[in-house]
Amino acid sequence: MPKSTNVNNRLSQLLWCVPALALLAGCDPDAGKGNRTISTDTSRTTPTDPRPLNNDRMTPSKSTDTPRSAVAQQKRILGLSVNGEPIEALIYGDGPDCVLILATIHGDEDAGTPLVWELSKQLIDRRDLWAGRRVVLMPLTNPDGMAAQTRGNVNGVDLNRNYPARNFQPSAKHGPAPLSEPESMAIDRALREYRPNRIVSIHQPLRYGSECVDYDGPAEDLAIAMSRHAPIPVKRIGSRPGSLGSYAGVTLGIPIITLELPKDAKGLDAATLWDDYGQMLLAAISFPESPVVNAGSR
Ligand SMILES: [Zn+2]
Question: 194: CA distance to ligand 1 center in Å?
Answer without folding.
Answer: 23
